Amino acid sequence: MIERYVVRSGEDLGRAIADIRKAQNLTQAALAATSGMSRDSVAQLERGRQGRSIELLLRMLRRLGATVTITVERNDGQA
Fold it and tell me: Where are the alpha helices (DSSP H) in 1-79?
């Protein structure tokens, strides 16, 4: 199954990260460890509070007519 997330804001990005992390049965701490981040940083990112730079980049891409989409292939064990 393929899951798609359209990202228009930091909150959208955070929700996508949280959903994907949970679907993979990862804790914030585990994701942080594999990403070289602190657990608090992951929590802030998932809440859409990761800083102004991501919001500015998303706004710039929207103004250029781009759509940011995250696509995840989920392996749920079904054929």
Answer: 10-23, 28-35, 39-46, 52-63
